[in-house]
Amino acid sequence: MALGAGGNENNVRYANIATDGSSIIMTQEQCKHDVRYAGVLNLLHGFGILGAVDVWECAKCGQIWCDEKRLGVQDLPPHVGFPPNEPDSEWAILVCRDGEKLEWHLLQVKKGAKLEHNCEVFNTTCNIEMVDGKAVCDLHKEGHTFFSVKDNINRSIKV
Ligand SMILES: [Zn+2]
Ligand SMILES: [Zn+2]
Ligand SMILES: [Zn+2]
């Protein structure tokens, strides 16, 4: 299916999936996004701030877009547009931890899909899936945690 056929590619999203007997009909809904700054999510570690994520939200369709801010890293250039989000995906923060080693990533996690993750904490590549909000890794039983961005706007997460 060609995304953006007959419309502005940036404003196309899958609105609903209707089943009609044996066939599946997918409809697209156009949203002329009305994007506003929704707030910030802070990542805390110990007594300090590890980083932050700025969040923008469309007041009409509820889609969100994020920018990460890392300590000691220069601000990114001004935001250029709001690219289409992956269908069936959600913004999440992945925290990896092994003892004192810690890293975090801002990601779009697709439902029902395994995410190939090159992990600097465990020094290996593993596959992580989000199951009921939890991180399930094919190699590590512990050490990976997902946090939903949408559920934590204007909150602080302690890692
Ligand atoms: Zn919208
Ligand atoms: Zn990792
Ligand atoms: Zn892993």
Question: How would you explain this protein's 3D organization?
Answer:
- By secondary structure, the chain is mostly beta strands.
- It has one domain.
- It has strands at residues 12-20, 23-30, 35-45, 48-58, 64-70, 89-98, 101-110, 115-119, 124-131, 134-137, 144-148, 156-158.
- The strands form four sheets. The protein has a four-stranded mixed beta sheet, with no helix packed on it. A three-stranded antiparallel beta sheet has the order 7-6-11, with no helix packed on it.
- A hairpin with a 4-residue loop joins strand 8 and strand 9 (124-131).
- The model is unreliable at 1-28 (pLDDT under 50).
- One zinc ion binds at residues 96, 103, 117, 119, 121.
Write the layout of secondary structure elements.
Elements: E1 12-20, E2 23-30, E3 35-45, E4 48-58, E5 64-70, E6 89-98, E7 101-110, E8 115-119, E9 124-131, E10 134-137, E11 144-148, E12 156-158
Parallel strand pairs: 3-12
Antiparallel strand pairs: 1-2, 3-4, 4-5, 6-7, 6-11, 8-9, 9-10
The chain binds zinc ion (ZN) (3 copies).
Indicate the mean pLDDT.
82
**Backbone structural class:** mainly beta
Q: What ligand molecules are bound, each kind once?
A: zinc ion
The gross shape turns out to be: globular
Low-confidence stretches: 1-28
Question: How large, in whole angstroms, is the Cα Rg?
Answer: 18 Å
Main beta-sheet strand count, sense and barrel state: 4 strands, mixed
If strands are numbered along the chain, what order do they take across the biggest sheet? 5-4-3-12
Percent helix: under 10%
* Strand and helix order: EEEEEEEEEEEE
Number of strands: 12
In percent, how much strand structure appears in the residues?
A: over 45%
Compute the number of helices.
0
The domain count comes to 1
> What is the terminal-to-terminal distance?
41 Å
